[in-house]
Design brief:
This protein is of the alpha+beta class. The chain is 30% helix and 18% strand. The chain has 6 helices and 13 strands. Strands 1-6-12-13 form a 4-stranded mixed beta sheet. The radius of gyration is 22 Å and the shape is globular.
Length: 253
């Protein structure tokens, strides 16, 4: 039983934001439902579909949201009655899954960071307030430090003569850095907390969850399909066996 309206028992993914027509968006939704695959994006060139490839650009600050990108499928944790604002920013075509199903395939909430906010305490000894003006500055410095550690490990491979303790330290450091890239840095989302709700750059209201790989599902796993009213007859013809909920995105909920 959910006692708060601002969280939802399901997570919704909208499709076709960059497509120009409703017909294109419907066909994309249809293809996803027929194939049972939500593909992680962005797709990295030359990467094998089963490889978890991560895009990392250390010349970009982590606060740009572009410095560490793991291809993922994104969902919003927004109750049905509050979706209209989100649909105006993205698309009126979507599908929803129970939160428990998505958690079982790796979904986790992102960590939102107000880029222009001030850190409550200085991150390192010797840092003055003039140098750490925002959370973005703080996190970008950590990003540079982790990159330096990563580069040192690459430049100094463990030699056979090194002590077992040194080898274990190097191996553990490598594991920690890799974990930070795939599970922490790639799930940070910096935003401007001063923007109004309707601003397309206001990400915070999405309460985003991410799955860092393709999501495979059966049609029965789909809890809800969201489409404009004019497409409901076509949808029933295409998916006459679908027993989940169909909601019209242009109706008032």
């Amino acid at each position: 039983m959910h006692l708060q309206r601002y969280v939802s028992p399901d997570l919704t993914h909208f499709v076709g934001k960059r497509l120009r027509t409703q017909a294109e968006r419907y066909n994309l939704l249809k293809r996803i439902l027929k194939t049972g695959v939500l593909k992680a994006s962005p797709r990295l060139k030359h990467a094998h579909p089963l490889t978890r490839a991560l895009f990392k650009d250390t010349d970009l600050g982590i606060s740009t949201n572009q410095g560490c990108v793991l291809p993922a499928v994104c969902f919003c944790d927004i109750p049905l009655c509050d979706l209209p604002l989100h649909m105006r920013k993205y698309s009126p075509f979507g599908l929803a899954f129970e939160k428990s199903f998505l958690a079982s395939v790796g979904a986790v909430p992102v960590v939102y960071v107000p880029a222009r906010g001030r850190p409550a305490s200085l991150p390192y000894p010797g840092y003055g307030r003039q140098r750490v003006a925002s959370q973005a500055v703080c996190f970008d410095e950590v990003w540079r430090i982790v990159d330096r550690l990563d580069n040192r490990l690459d430049a100094s491979p463990v030699q056979p003569r090194k002590s077992q303790e040194a080898q274990l330290l190097a191996e553990d450091t490598r594991r920690v850095i890799e974990f930070l890239y795939f599970h922490i840095f790639s799930n940070l989302k910096f935003f401007d907390h001063r923007l109004n709700d309707a601003d397309r750059r206001n990400f915070y209201l999405e309460r985003e969850w991410r799955v860092g790989q393709d999501v495979h599902f059966e049609l029965d796993d789909v809890m809800r399909v969201i489409i404009p009213d004019r497409w409901h007859r076509q949808f029933r013809r295409d998916f006459d066996g679908y027993e989940g909920e169909v909601v019209f995105s242009d109706w008032q909920h």
